[in-house]
C-alpha cells in the first residue's frame, strides 16, 4: 500500500488522494500573450526528475503541494501552499474585456 | 424518520455497541480568516489546532477542519437550537467569514460503546483506538470507501465516535455500519 503524507491530515492511503497536475505559476491573465496563457493552461513539462505537483486530499478537500521524483516515484516532501501563496490576490476585471466569440 | 429522543441511551453503559442517527440535529460550518474571531465573539470555544474538536458548555462540539474552517455540531440538550440560530443570523458582510451550510450536505451518525473503535477498524484505515485517537481528535479520512469526518466525543467513560459524511450515502453507510457492528451485537437505537 502506498502512503502519502498530507500536511494537514498526516499519513494516509494513496487512495484518499487525487493528482492535480504540475505546479505552475499563473501568468497575469490581463497582461500575458495568448501563447503564454495557452502554454499555462494546456502544456505540461513532463520532466523526468524532481517535480512539484498539486495533490488533493479528498476527504478534507485540502489542496497541497508535493515534491516527487517522477522516475523513482518517491515523494520527497509535501507542504501547504501558503509557503508559496502568502498573500491574498485581488482579481480586478480587465479595463477592456475581450468579447468572446 | 430519525428519532431525536436519544438522551436515554446516550447514558447507557460502555458495554453497548449502538448506532444513533443524528442527521436531523442542526450543524453548520464557517470558513475564512475572520471566522475564528466571529465564533469567539459568539461565545464558542475553539480548538487550537486543525483536526481537533472542543466540547462546548452546552454539550455541542466545535470541530476545526483546517486552519480557518470550523464545523459546529448542535447539542442534544437544546436540540441544536443554538447552532440553528447561528446559521440563521449569519449575514455576509465585509468580514472574511463565509457560511458553509451543512444540514443538507452531511449526514451524521454516532457509534457508541466499548467496541466502537473495533467496529471502525473494520471500515477505516486510520487507528481510531482511544490510545491513538483521544477525546477531541478528528480524522478526515475514508471509511467503507466514502469520505468521512470522524470525531471522538467520548464522555463520562462512554466511548463515542461521531461520523459525518455525504448525506445521499446515509442509507448505504448506515447499513455498512450495522453490518460491521453485527458481530458485537450492535444495533440502531435512534
Short overview:
The complex is a heterodimer of chains A (101) and B (190). Chain A has 101 residues and is mainly beta.
List keywords for this structure.
heterodimer; A: 101 residues; mainly beta; Folate-binding fold; two-stranded antiparallel sheet; globular; B: 190 residues; alpha+beta; Gyrase A, domain 2; Alpha-Beta Plaits; 6-stranded mixed β-sheet; 5-stranded antiparallel β-sheet; 5 helices; 20% helix; Sarcosine oxidase subunit delta (chain A)
Q: Quote the CATH topology of chain A.
A: Folate-binding fold
Q: Which structural class do you get from the secondary structure elements of chain A?
A: mainly beta
What kind of sheet is the major sheet of chain A?
4 strands, antiparallel
Q: Helices and strands of chain B: which structural class?
A: alpha+beta
Mean pLDDT of chain A: 91
State the end-to-end CA separation of chain A. 49 Å
In terms of DSSP E residues, the strand content of chain B is 25-35%
| CATH fold node name of the largest domain in chain B | Gyrase A, domain 2
Number of strands of chain B: 11
SSE pattern of chain B, N- to C-terminal:
HEEHEEEHEEHEEEHE
Uncertain parts of chain A: none
Report Rg of chain B: 16 Å
User: Widest sheet of chain A: strand order?
Assistant: 3-4-5-6
Spatial order of the strands in the main sheet of chain B?
8-9-10-7-1-11
**What's the CATH class of chain A, please?**
Alpha Beta
Q: How far apart are the termini of chain B?
A: 9 Å
Q: How many helical elements of chain A?
A: 1
CATH superfamily of chain A: Folate-binding superfamily
Protein name (chain A): Sarcosine oxidase subunit delta
